[in-house]
Amino acid sequence: MKNIAIIYGSSTDNTKNVARKIAKKLSAENVLLKDVSTVDFSDLANCSNIILGTSTWGLGDLQDDWNSRIPELQKVDLTGKTLAFFGLGDSSSYSDTFADGMGLLYEAIEGKGFKHVGETSTDGYSFDSSVAVKNGKFIGLALDEDNESNLTEQRLNAWIESIIPELQ
Ligand SMILES: Cc1cc2nc3c(=O)[nH]c(=O)nc-3n(C[C@H](O)[C@H](O)[C@H](O)COP(=O)(O)O)c2cc1C
Asked: For an engineered disulfide with 10, which of 16, 65, 100, 104 has Cβ 3.0 to 4.6 Å away?
């Protein structure tokens, strides 16, 4: 049985809407879909798979609700769990900090013993710089609802297809 938690931070609902779509498309038996502002992190103890999503605000900042809860996330025992990330941004207006929040989220828990899945190619994106790019790839799924919402569905589908075999 696959237990999947999807935790998102969202200021104007874009990330929330994507999180809902992911939950639907995964059609797992047990999906815990939670806004980071209200999640009880102790619920993650029962989840083998965790998907974390955030948008980016300011100039390359993590979404506000995530900011205040990072210390709690860092206390969660992620050993042996499978983690994937998704991030929303605006690659046109914020080309130098595109989807940085996703990279910051990853960096906050990097090395905590989880299996990291769902990296994606930067092909097809147009931006100058992103903290979410490590070793030439996005550490998760980057989406741009401001300029490329027409690509979201196909990006989502391809990503979900790529992570499903990796989930435990
Ligand atoms: C004031 C402001 C600052 C932003 N800063 C960034 C940024 O630095 N990098 C980026 O990729 N997107 C940035 N964005 C775009 C948002 O991340 C994007 O609109 C996202 O879809 C919002 O998702 P949410 O509604 O889930 O918070 C910014 C948007 C606004 C309005």
From this structure: 16
Question: Hey, where are the domains in the chain?
Answer: 3-166
pLDDT tens sequence across 146-159: 999 999 999 999 99
pLDDT tens readout for residues 86-144: 999 999 999 999 999 999 999 999 999 999 999 999 999 999 999 999 999 999 999 99
Angle at which helix 149-163 crosses helix 14-26, to 10 degrees, equals 40
Q: Tell the CATH topology of 3-166.
A: Rossmann fold (3.40.50)
pLDDT at 81 > cutoff 70: yes
Contact status, residue 72 vs residue 109, Cβ threshold 8 Å: no
Closest by CA to 22, choosing from 166, 168, 158, is 158
Q: Distance between CA atoms of 102 and 154, rounded to whole angstroms?
A: 20
| CA–centroid distance, residue 30 to ligand 1 (Å) | 30
| C-alpha 153, offset from chain centre | 16
Is the C-beta atom of 120 inside 6 A of ligand 1?
Answer: no
What's residue 55's pLDDT? 98
Taking CA atoms only, the protein residue closest to ligand 1 atom 16 is 89
